[in-house]
């Protein structure tokens, strides 16, 4: 409905003429600055508001050229349709939308089986906004379990700690700070960008609430030695009686390993692995934001942490950090599960992996890059520059001019002197796109090298003493 001010009958002749006889761009809203600080007293026509915001968003990067993010940028039109159809459903209204809740539970069931939960366990889990929320919830449950056990033994509970490598995502450090747990961060080593089981053994004690292990690290896409860590923790349990759980951060790897490395033991087949998170919006191939948390058994989630809500009608168990959230990504996840099946996921992931390996080989062969995750288990390529005349940050900036979004960063403690570019290869990034990216990377390196040489020449001319 038009506001009073824009009611055509009350408009001045010239304003009316503008609205009737011209396009949205001919209206006055396109020669005025848009409100940025205070909500305007009067609104504007929907088409003008749409066009102004739409045009501003053109300044954002193009999601399909974004190699920085792991997050899905494309889904099938049928999934888009389901998302649109469920965009108005608040997930937390379980009593009003019982089928949506059932669909969530089916996804949790499928994931527990995909992660090889033993058949005598009663696995439980929940959807979350992403892996970050899922990790916080998983670790909170372990903190609570540790605290209850210590209290039952009459032991102090004031010094909980959590052990993990510096290869973890920032959310792990966030958990430690927000939930008051001592962070025991194992530094990385040069040429090994994960932790070792020995590192873990040296750092755990009776106050360790959990060990964090990653399958598919954010920095290099590699994997902590989860099986070895499990074996060490079993030894410790046997010798010292400390029953320390592992939470596996499968944000990326949780949707890769089951489909292409089914024999790799990283999941609930390992005794100490009690909880796993995975991002539906990464290799689960759903738009943001959806993550999942699965506990091997319902005893791994203390009952006190589950809230029963009754004011939306019915009684609903809830384990989450926030309350309201959308339903559409949960539904889209279920769509992918039944639409693709294990085979469909496997085929897509194989393509991504082949393309990642292809890019890695080309970068190595160009002589300009050293790929640091040569083993490429997960579809991403992390490379450092061989050239010292310019750096990865300049390369990243120059590539942005061509539309490519390729992040550059330094690795965590104690490998922080290594600066890399990282390319996450997604399903919608085909072979030709890889070739185009590669060509632009190599061309950009040549241009940066020329510029560096020119700059050196100028410096030498301006400072003749250097000539002698
Ligand atoms: C290994 C790992 N863990 C956790 C996260 C956080 O996940 P989300 O963005 O789903 O909250 C990421 C994100 O990139 C990640 O790579």
Automatic annotation (TrEMBL):
<dbReference type="InterPro" id="IPR002129">
    <property type="entry name" value="PyrdxlP-dep_de-COase"/>
</dbReference>
<dbReference type="InterPro" id="IPR010107">
    <property type="entry name" value="Glutamate_decarboxylase"/>
</dbReference>
<feature type="modified residue" description="N6-(pyridoxal phosphate)lysine">
    <location>
        <position position="282"/>
    </location>
</feature>
<comment type="similarity">
    <text>Belongs to the group II decarboxylase family.</text>
</comment>
<dbReference type="InterPro" id="IPR015424">
    <property type="entry name" value="PyrdxlP-dep_Trfase"/>
</dbReference>
<dbReference type="GO" id="GO:0004351">
    <property type="term" value="F:glutamate decarboxylase activity"/>
</dbReference>
<dbReference type="GO" id="GO:0030170">
    <property type="term" value="F:pyridoxal phosphate binding"/>
</dbReference>
<dbReference type="GO" id="GO:0006538">
    <property type="term" value="P:L-glutamate catabolic process"/>
</dbReference>
<dbReference type="InterPro" id="IPR015421">
    <property type="entry name" value="PyrdxlP-dep_Trfase_major"/>
</dbReference>
<protein>
    <recommendedName>
        <fullName>glutamate decarboxylase</fullName>
        <ecNumber>4.1.1.15</ecNumber>
    </recommendedName>
</protein>
<dbReference type="GO" id="GO:0005829">
    <property type="term" value="C:cytosol"/>
</dbReference>
<dbReference type="Pfam" id="PF00282">
    <property type="entry name" value="Pyridoxal_deC"/>
</dbReference>
<keyword id="KW-0663">Pyridoxal phosphate</keyword>
<keyword id="KW-0456">Lyase</keyword>
